[in-house]
Design a protein that fits this description.
By secondary structure, the protein is mainly alpha-helical. It folds into 2 domains: about 90 residues, Tyrosine recombinase, N-terminal domain (DNA polymerase, domain 1); about 180 residues, Intergrase catalytic core (hpI Integrase, Chain A), CATH 1.10.443.10. Helices cover about 60% and strands about 5% of the residues. The protein is built from 12 helices and 3 strands; from the N terminus they run αααααααβββααααα. A 3-stranded antiparallel beta sheet has the order 1-2-3, with no helix packed on it. α2 packs across α4, α10 packs across α12 and α11 packs across α12. It is globular, with a radius of gyration of 23 Å. The N and C termini lie far apart (about 60 Å).
């Protein structure tokens, strides 16, 4: 069993080139299902039946798990058993096509208006190193739509100031994203004038560092963002992903095509990108209902 899971992990990382978060999520769901099977007296996961899958979903439901969590667990198991079937260890997957989970009503992500983005970006002070660092981080997040993990994992060498672009890596996949002028200016000031004042180790590779001179953490960036949200008086519950969602919707509103947006955001499946089309359409309908004299 352990060898099989290790082989599956290698498949996810080396063949599928899935992100670290995706691999961790798939393996966690797989181990939880395996532990549930063992408690029921079935030690070999390859002996799982269609009935076991349905019973496990019922167990998750009774345990109070959300539709989204159950759907993710089912997807993890479906992917695992498809892999095992492809290797010849199973003739058929127990996760059949007729097994599905009702996710319930999907809540659309929160986004900022253009004015709210401008207000947020205007908050960092331009008179001290910390403020200039924060300005560069916020501008870069909105300019690229990258995930917070991608932002804090950036090294100095990932930025090309001459080309006005940044190289972003997620898992085994790398994409290059251009920067608008204001973001490029903020990043240039930070790299050339500010970062050298903040790092303690001359060999530090991290692009963004904390006050101790080490690489910025997810929690550190989250606290910075919440601080400027409060300072700007924005009542929406802003998270690092809010800037990513706002980036996507604003690009679509201004004429970007889906395939270009998919590449910029690093989505492996265009269905993830299509969510933003739904958000734009919903916003247009809201404007229509509010403004059309006969609506």
């Amino acid at each position: 069993m352990l060898d099989l899971i290790q082989a599956y992990e290698n498949y996810l990382t080396k063949v599928k080139q899935a992100s670290d978060n995706t691999v961790s999520s798939y393996l966690r769901d797989l181990r939880q299902f395996s532990a549930w099977l063992e408690r029921g007296g079935k030690a070999d996961i390859l002996q799982a039946t269609q009935g076991d899958i349905c019973d496990y979903l019922a167990y998750l439901h009774q345990d109070g798990k959300s539709g989204a969590t159950m759907s993710r667990s089912l997807a993890s198991l479906r992917n695992f058993f498809s892999y095992v079937q492809s290797t010849g260890f199973l003739e058929a997957s127990p996760v059949t096509a007729d097994i599905h989970v009702d996710r319930g009503e999907k809540k659309l992500p929160q986004i900022l208006t253009g004015k709210e983005v401008e207000l947020l970006l205007a908050q960092p002070s331009s008179s001290d190193p910390k403020g200039l660092r924060d300005k560069a981080m916020l501008e870069l997040m909105y300019a690229t739509g990258m995930r917070v993990t991608e932002l804090i994992n950036l090294d100095v060498e990932d930025v090309n100031l001459e080309l006005g672009a940044v190289k972003c890596t997620s898992g085994k996949k790398t994409r290059t994203i251009p920067l608008y002028p204001a973001a490029l200016r903020a990043l240039t000031i930070y790299i050339k004038d500010i970062r050298i004042l903040m790092v303690e180790n001359p060999g530090e590779k991290a692009l963004f560092v904390n006050v101790g001179g080490a690489r910025m953490s997810r929690q550190g960036f989250w606290k910075i963002l919440k601080q400027y949200q409060s300072k700007a008086g924005i009542e929406k519950d802003i998270t690092p992903h809010t800037l990513r969602h706002s980036f996507a919707v604003h690009l679509l509103e201004n004429g970007a095509d889906l395939s270009s947006l998919q590449e910029l955001m690093g989505h492996s499946d265009i269905s993830s990108t299509q969510l933003y089309t739904h958000m734009v359409n919903q916003k247009l309908k809201s404007v229509y209902d509010k403004c059309h004299p006969k609506a």
